[in-house]
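Researcher: I'm comparing several assemblies side by side, and this is the next one on my list. It has 651 residues spread over two chains. Same procedure as the others: predict the full complex and return the structure.
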Amino acid sequence: MHIVICIKQVPDSAQIRVHPVTNTIMRQGVPTIINPYDLFALEEALQLRDRHGGEVTVLTMGPPMAEDALRKALTYGADRAVLLTDRHFAGSDTLATSFALSRAIAKIGEAFGTPDIVFTGKQTIDGDTAQVGPGIAKRLDLLQLTYVAKIVSVDINGREITVERRSEGGTQTLMSKLPCLITMLEGTNEIRRGSLDDALRAARSQIVKWNAADAGIEDLTKCGLRGSPTVVKRVFAPPERAEKAEQIDTAEKTPRDLAEELIAGIFLRQPALESELAFDGE
Amino acid sequence: MLSTNRESPPPAAGRAAMKKELPDQFKDHRHVWVFMELERDQVHPVSFELLGEGRKLADKLGVQLAGVVLGPPGEATWFAIAEAFAYGADLAYLVEAPLLADYRNEPFTKALTDLVTNYKPEILLLGATTLGRDLAGSVATTLLTGLTADCTELDVDADGSLAATRPTFGGSLLCTIYTLNCRPQMATVRPRVMAMPPRGNNKIGRVIQHKVSMIEEEIVTKVLGFLSDGQSATANLAYADVVVAGGLGLGAVENVKLMKKLARTIGADYGCSRPLVQKGWMPADRQIGQTGKTIRPKLYIAAGISGAIQHRVGVEGADLILAINTDPNAPIFDFAHLGVVTDAIRLLPSLTELFTHRLSPHSRDKLAN
C-alpha cells in the first residue's frame, strides 16, 4: 500500500518568545521540531506499511529549512520525502494550504502511485486549527476520518478500513473505504527509534523538492495570501490581568494553618460555595 | 501565519488584499447562524454558548439569529429547536433524515452546505468540538470560504464584518481575523470559552424545513458502534463547578492521588497541565489548556502548576483561581486570585482534612445553629 503523511515543521511552542514591542514571534534561536501530533500519525503509517507492505511518503509544505523535518522523518523509517516550497505559498491560510497540499498529493499519486491513505496529525501546535486535514480530504474527495484513536483493521483487497474515532463523550467505531484521509489523535504509539540502516539511508536520500509549478499548480491566485480568504488584521499580546494573586503569608505557618487560611479565603470570596461543595466524607 | 498555519507572517495591515468591496454574489447573504450540535439526543451546551454570542452579533448587525438543527426524525430535533428559541434564536432551520442519526462527515457536510447555499447566512458559528471541527473544515472547503478556529472573542466592525479573535502559538499571541470577499464568515469556538447565556421562556419561532438530497446508499461510511464514556468520563470536566488540577509540582506520579483525594472530598472534577500527560501520569482527556479542555468553574485549585500561557488560556474563565506553587515567580500568580508559595505535596493533605472538617454535616449543622 502507499501511504502519504503530511507533517509540519513548527517552532517548539513551549519556548516561544514574543517581541515586546512589535508583537512578533521571535524565531531566532527557537528550536524547530516536527509537530508532535504528526509523529503519532507517522508511527501509525509506518506500522501499517510494516504490516501490509508498501511505502510511506512524507510530505511537508514550508520554507527550504523544513527539509530538516523531512530528513528526520526519513530516519524514523519513511521511504520517501517531498518538500513543497515556493515563495508563492507565503501567508497561506488553511484553505490555501489545503489547496497546495492536495495538489502535491495528487502529483505524488501520479509519480509514485495513488495513495491508499493520507495521514495528518489531529492539529499543529502553532496554528492549532485542525482544519488542513479536512480541507485536503474535501479537495481530493477522500473519505474523512478525524480524531482517530485506533485503526482496528485494514483490508487492502476489499478496500475497507475500520477505525475507532473519539467523539464528544465516547468512541465511535466507523467502517469506511479506501482511499481515505485520517487525522490521528495523540495515541499510545510513540514514534519508534529508527534503525541504523534508516539513519544511513536518510543521510543518503535525495529529498524531492517541488515548487508550485512542479506540483502542477498553474493558478497561483489560489495560493498564499491571494488564495486565503482569511486575513490577519491585528496581532497583539494577551492583556495582563490588572491584579496579581493575593498572597497568603507563609512565614512560620504549618500546612494546616495555611489550609485554614486558604479555605477561609475561598469562602470569603465565594460565599455561595460553602453550601454548594458536595461533601464526600469517608 | 497565525490563525491558519501561515507560512510566514504577512504584514499586519494595510495590504492591497484588505479591500472591503464584497463581490455581488455574496451581497444577499444575511443573518447569523449557529449550528446546534445534537448527538445521541443531547444538545451539546456549546450550542447555547454560541447562541448567546450569536445573539449579540445579530443585534449589532440588525439581523436575525437562526439555530440550525440536523438529525433523525423524532423528538430530539424538535427539542433542540425549542432550546434554540429559549436561548435567543429567532428562527430555526431543520433537516430531518434517518441518515443523520449518528454523526458522519458525508451527510452532515452535504446537509449543512445545501442549507448555506439555499438560505445564505453571512455568519456561521460552530462549536470547536470533535464534531464541529470535523464538519466546519469540510463545509468551509466546499464553499471555499474562510474559517477561523477556536475563537475567544467575536465582534462585528463598523462595516458589518465579523472580527474573530483567537489565540495562536499556544496562546502567546492573539490575532484578529477577517474573512474578506467570501461568505459565510465561519468560526468555531471551544466549549466554555463563552459564558452560558440566561435561558429565556420563548419556545416559539419560525421553523424552515429542508430536505437533504442524499440517500443512505450514497454514504460510504457506516457507524458500527458507539461506546459511551459513561459516568467515568471526563465529559464533565469542562462543565464542572469546581476543578482541582495538578502539575509538575506534584513531583511524582504517586502524589497525583493527593490531588484526586482533595477533588473527591469537595465534589470537584480533576485535571492536569500538559507535562503530566506527556509523562504518562494522567490521560490526555484530563488535560486543561490550549490543547486540552477549557474550564469555567466557580473555583479552580491549581496545585504545582506553573501557569504557562498554554494553561492560562484554558482557565481564565474561572471565577476564583487558587494557586499553590513553590516558585514565587511562577506565571500562575499573575492571573490567579489567591496564591500561596508553598509545596503542594505538603499542603494538599491539610486542605483535604480541613475541607472534610468544614464540610461535614456535623460542622455544617453547628454553623447553621
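Model: For your comparison table: The mean pLDDT of chain A is 92.
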